[in-house]
Amino acid sequence: MTHERTPDRLILAGGRIVDPSQSLDRVGDLVMENGRITQILPPGTGGAGVVRNVEGKLVTPGLIDLHVHLREPGFEYKEDIESGTRAAAAGGFTAVCCMPNTNPPIDTASTVRYILERAQEVGAARVYPVAAVTRGMGASQLSEMADLKAAGAVAVSDDAFPIQNAETMRRAMEYCAQLGLVLMTHNEEKSLTEGGAMNEGYTATILGLRGMPRVAEDIAAARNIFLAALTGCRLHLLHMSTAGTVRLLQRAKCEGMPVTGETAPHYWCLTDAACEGFNTNAKMNPPLRTDADVAAIIHALADGTIDAIATDHAPHAAHEKDQEFDRAPFGVIGLETAFALTYTHLVQRGILSLSSAIEKLSTGPARILGLPGGTLAPGAPADVAVFDLQEEWTVAPDEFRSKSANSPFLGQKLIGRAVFTVLGGRIVEV
Questions:
Q1: pLDDT 10s digits, 364-413
Q2: CATH code for 9-59+381-429?
Q3: pLDDT tens across 268-326, in order?
Q4: Under 8 Å CB-to-CB from 430, ≥6 apart: which residues?
């Protein structure tokens, strides 16, 4: 992957430009000047500057991933900011929100600043830190959220260490409401999942593994939604995987509660049957669920209940995944396959329009956290993704830009792939 210098004027000429924020879908020239979008013109009229011919390609706002584990600081052998953002660019993402379960956690202003500085130095995509809601990602002591926000954190989260105490969660939400921070929750009642390795059901039984029941997610999501209604906190449900949580989000939205939700491609492409043969690349938390849950997730994407598609990109070294299923860590990578899985499984099957898919991968995520980008409107940052919708490719471990290869989609044939991205008016080759 290479970075070209930032030209004063860049024109992407002749591509199919799809921008959900403007209900736009037409062939034209996208013009960028000094790192900003300036105009969209009829094909062949973009004028002088650095011209990149993208005829036959799809041009969209750069994708934004709300849920990524970059592993830096502390676990750089799995991933770091440089390799993680290279993987992001290879998937068409120009921005990622990094989760706080690093070592040390993202629970101080200095750690937030470190991440932002590293991303500025080596990043192939923008990095937005999501800070820890509690100190040390521990049980009860709230982090200094005002300081974290001032340092550049865009939200707070309990991801990987879900808060179990309702009083602690209430106080966290009250704090977030005062600060205007979104709280991104990992919804899991751990008394029901302790020691579990995969979804509770038939496959877990035949494999002799302890299961994690779907209701554990539903109970925690319900509690968090009720507390959001009480406090006025803006709540975002991370990695939704169950039909029950879908119903809870539907009800919350009908009642006007400030709640949004995301899911990841593995929750609509796979079921817990993917764990057969003790396949640790299919082990994640929340776990892969049932056919009924997959159907509910797909329907919720189609009807707009689920606001965003994220990846929960969670790299692990090969030796960590190459052990007994119940000992292997939870997590799969997803930055480099998310667009292709969305296009192949949802757009080509008529479940989502192309514009709706881009909305859930870019415009929607930007709106949820109030981030720059997600649009090609004049004046917006020149963060753009270019895709080849004709390219057929097979997911292979040796082609990943990520340091890790723990994907549940190895060997699958997909359609649609990023050609390059534009970050602040600078072309990033994938």
A1: 999 999 999 999 999 999 999 999 999 999 999 999 999 999 999 999 99
A2: 2.30.40.10
A3: 999 999 999 999 999 999 999 999 999 999 999 999 999 999 999 999 999 999 999 99
A4: 1, 89, 90, 401, 418, 419, 420, 421
Q: Strand, coil or helix: what is 425?
A: coil
Instruction: Report the DSSP pairing between strands 155-157 and 50-53.
Output: unpaired
Please tell me whether residue 127 adopts helix, strand or coil conformation.
Answer: strand
Q: What is the pTM assigned to this prediction? A: 0.97
Q: Where in the chain is the domain with CATH 2.30.40.10?
A: 9-59+381-429
3-state SS class at 366: helix
SS3 label, residue 156:
strand
> Which positions are annotated as active-site residues?
312
Q: Which helix (H) or strand (E) holds 5?
A: none
Distance between CA atoms of 244 and 267, rounded to whole angstroms?
Answer: 14
Residues of the chain with CATH 3.20.20.140: 62-369
Measure the CA–CA gap between 52 and 42, rounded to whole angstroms. Answer: 15
Using CB atoms within 10 Å of the CB of residue 185, give its burial: 0 to 12 exposed, 13 to 18 middle, 19+ buried: buried
> Which amino acid belongs to residue 97?
C
125: nearest Cα among 60, 78, 62: 62
Query: Strands 58-61, 63-68: parallel, antiparallel or unpaired by DSSP?
Result: unpaired
Taking the C-alpha atoms of residue 400 and residue 427, their distance in angstroms, rounded to an integer, is: 20
HEC states along 303-363?
A: HCCCCEECCCECCCCHHHHCCCCCCCCCCECCCCCHHHHHHHHHHCCCCCCHHHHHHHHHH
Residues contacting 25, CB < 8 A, separation 6+: 16, 17, 18, 19, 354, 355
Give phi and psi for 263, each to the nearest 5.
-140, 175
* Joined tokens for residue 47: 């004028």
Amino acid, res. 383: D
Read off the amino acid at residue 275: C
141-157 in b/e form (b: 16+ CB < 10 A) is ebbebeebbebbbbbbb
102, 90 in Cβ contact below 8 A?
A: no
Amino acid at 300: A
Q: How many residues in the chain? A: 430
Q: ∠ CA 285-162-231 to the nearest 5 degrees?
A: 130
Domain 62-369: what homologous superfamily? Answer: Metal-dependent hydrolases (3.20.20.140)
Token pair in block for residue 334: 């997803």
